Request: fold
Amino acid sequence: MKRVWLVAAENDVLPRGKVGGVGDVVRDLPLALAGIDLDVSVITPSYGMFHALPEATFQRELNVEFAGETQVAEIYRVALGDSAVKQFVIEHPLLSPHGPGRIYVSDEPGKPFAIDSAKFAFFNAAVAAWVNDSKTPPDVLHLNDWHTGLIPALREFGDPAAPLRQVRIAFTVHNLAYQGVRPFEGDPSSLEAWFPGMNAHWQQLQDPRYPDCVNFMAVAIRLADSINTVSPSYALEVLRPSDPATGFSGGEGLEAELNEAHFEGRLFGILNGCMYPKDLPREPSWGEMLKLIGKQAPIMIADKPAKDWLEKYKGKRPKNLILSIGRVVEQKVPLFLEPVPGFGSALEAILDAAGPESLFIMLGNGQEALEERFAAIARSNDNFLYLRGYVDALSGPLYAAADLFLMPSSFEPCGISQMLAMRVGQPCVVHAVGGLKDTVEHGVTGFVFAGETPADQAENFVSCVHEALAVKQNKPARWKKICATAALRRFSWEVAALNYQQKLYQHE
Reply:
């Protein structure tokens, strides 16, 4: 049985082990891989917390050469999730430099990625040391995003006799917007500081824009045996240069490396899956929905007295309940805030089109400046409620209750929110990019818009929402069919797992 070690910064099997979509993938994909007779282990940093879980048991110590010293790390196995997948964490103080529980941290001005890069460089060194010191090393290391990007360099430039040299490396690009760029030398957070004396070919490690810097993501793309993005469309988009003027996000400076991988037959697009449990959240009554919101209201309702809001909406359910759930970051929300003719933003045009009998609820947090923009719009529009934060207990019922889901991401490597909405029969309005383009079919399972510039995209976004609401209002039979078709559409982790096995783990 082929042994696969899946290595990542996040894992939603572990409590508080998820920040973004990587955590979802690392939770669900390994189980599907185990279902096709692969021996799967998942490895993440402990961050000073996961090793302390009641379900964690100490396995062994591990000597790790890092920063000119021999560091002693600890390996723990955590008995959570399905027993078919083994969950491991690596513990060391260098993996929690700002205290326990911080997966990612903010850096001081002028030193992007400094703290996290040093942390993940050590994690990479620990994984490499574990492979070399294992009685049963993996056949495949499946690495995820830039946080694991130096492991291929440690294989390439390490001891030729080391077991790591014999391991196949697959690398998944989840989001090219984050690459992990640090100096080669002259800084405590630099390649020279982490791995002094590394006999490397610097051109294989350097950032194409900053030749005096190492780029974790670029290293992995150049040196991994196989690479994938998390949707077929994103695999094509990344071959083109990004163009801020048109709002297009492509290779983000790494398009040359990605084109080379494509030419060599190493680059694939594999769509992420979605789980389809039998016990999906039922649609709550409007009274139940208000009670759920009310429990979180004091801390989540942005700039609107919770008591007043709940009082206003305690009666009849809104005619149209519109929903958006996701991180409030530059990738996800700019089109909401893009001006359109006659309105300060596309969001305000949508609220005007929806009318006072409708309600738009947005759930999510992220960049403070963007949060404040949405809070300001909420203050001026009674039919817009911005819930600043995220709780699972609220998101599931909201998906089940809403009529229409909006996801106008500027780019989207795959996306999971649209799949979660579709599985409960909720049509989505999405931007025709990446995984959104691959999962939503216009007029069949939802509504899709495009545009040559951000201004065009915003106008078409508003028009698309108009179209969706008009179909719901005037063509109920067609709307019912779209809802039913969306609910029946399946994006299977089992299919994804077979693609990983055939294309990444054994492709020649």
